[in-house]
From TrEMBL:
Biased composition (Polar residues): 1-19
Protein's name according to its UniProt entry: AcrR family transcriptional regulator
Keyword Transcription part of the UniProt annotation: yes
Region Disordered, annotated ranges: 1-26
Keywords associated with the record: DNA-binding, Transcription, Transcription regulation
Keyword Transcription regulation listed: yes
Length: 405
């Protein structure tokens, strides 16, 4: 009940008005950042202008500066808001009454609901976080690690036989399966999507992957011979630079320097940076097509073909981590014709997974969602500078998702 002072008197009305004004401002900031997150996710941070964000939010370009100093400020706000949402998932799930099984299930449900509701924000974290400053990026990373730790802790209580490292691996992989919802545009109701994503996560959390062998991880970018042609050296030099800094932040001169080639000579091999990026994409698509094609062609039945397809993709992902990251994140920056051609190649690759999964599991309700979950598990485990799993573990988890989710 309101106090007498808030029902009458100028001071009470003033305070209420100020509070309402702040609330309206906060609501507008949240609206702008949510719209921007979707646009950044669709077209990339550098592909969206402040005027486009303002127009989508129904305000004028100058009016956006009442809420944010610049585009970087909008990205930072969206990231901080998403970090807070992740933290809430962890805290609320851990505070649930009941058994460890109930708490674990609550965490999975909360994350699945968040991902389905905030589809664009997941891709924002996956690919646009590199444009944040160190503090905001660290906050986002910390929130995700907290969520993983909560899921791993509850999983360890439910499955006490698991080594701590394995519980952490399964927690990370389960969350990657859920986050796969951001990687495609399958038309599915929110309820069906959440159920399918939870199923994939539950399969991962129940898995028994093989122990990791004591081996050194393959390099993110395979070494290039000193005798390689200049074009090959430029391709090899561009991959880690594009992966670390993003396409727009890297210059042709910087690529030439990294390759040991004079800036004036770079344009003899590529007409521009987009042309070079397209060559990188075709290289990745060709390598992947050869590896997976050989695995499937040598198989005698659908189950063997699916195992071969997964194994070939895992080998590609772990052996070409930087190339994979670019292949998944920079397609918006390709020349139009190349972008369409390469998207068709990517869709054909996914279709092969979906077809084989459907043949192995005719009762699968949403095989494309399941396939994307398996692929995202592999990608997220392989791409960090220090992979989160061994190739055999990633293969095991992906096949479990395809067969049982």
């Amino acid at each position: 009940m309101a106090s007498p002072g808030t029902r009458s008197g100028r001071s009470g009305n003033s305070r209420t008005g100020a509070g309402s004004s702040r609330l309206r401002t906060d609501d507008r900031r949240a609206q702008i950042s949510a719209i921007a997150a979707e646009l950044f996710s669709e077209r990339g941070y550098h592909g969206v202008g402040l005027g486009e964000i303002a127009s989508a939010a129904g305000i004028t370009g100058p009016a956006i500066y009442r809420h944010f100093p610049n585009k970087q400020g909008i990205l930072a706000h969206a990231a901080r808001e998403f970090a807070a949402a992740l933290s809430s998932c962890a805290q609320e799930a851990d505070a649930e009454p009941g058994s460890d099984e109930a708490k674990l299930d609550s965490a999975v449900r909360a994350v699945a609901a968040l991902v389905v509701r905030r589809r664009g924000s997941i891709r924002l974290y996956q690919w646009e976080a590199r444009h944040l400053d160190d503090e905001d990026r660290a906050q986002l990373t910390s929130s995700l690690r907290t969520l993983i730790a909560v899921v791993a802790h509850r999983l360890g209580a439910v499955r006490p036989e698991l080594p701590e490292a394995t519980a952490g691996l399964l927690a990370s992989a389960a969350l990657s399966g859920i986050a796969s919802w951001s990687t495609h545009r399958v038309a599915l109701s929110d309820r069906a999507a959440e159920e399918t994503l939870r199923s994939a996560a539950s399969v991962v959390l129940a898995a028994d992957p093989p122990p990791a062998p004591d081996t050194t991880a393959a390099p993110g970018s395979p070494p290039v011979s000193a005798l390689a042609a200049r074009r090959e050296k430029l391709l090899a030099a561009s991959v880690p630079l594009f992966r670390k800094q993003g396409f727009h932040a890297v210059s042709m001169e910087e690529i030439g320097t990294a390759a040991g080639i004079n800036a004036s000579s770079v344009y003899r091999h590529f007409s521009g940076k987009a042309d070079l990026l397209a060559a990188v994409y075709y290289r990745a698509a060709d390598r992947l097509a050869v590896a997976t094609g050989r695995a499937v062609d040598d198989a005698g039945d659908a189950a063997t073909a699916l195992r071969g397809l997964v194994g070939a993709y895992v080998d590609f992902a772990f052996g070409n981590r930087d190339l994979l990251a670019i292949y998944l994140s920079e397609y918006r920056n390709l020349p139009t014709d190349d972008r369409h051609a390469l998207r068709r190649a990517q869709r054909d690759h996914i279709r092969q997974w979906v077809t084989l999964t459907g043949q192995v599991r005719p009762d699968a309700r949403h095989p494309q969602v399941t396939v994307q979950a398996a692929l995202n598990v592999i990608n997220d485990l392989a791409m960090p500078s220090t992979p989160l799993a061994a190739p055999g573990q990633a293969t095991h988890l992906a096949l479990d998702v395809l067969h049982f989710a």
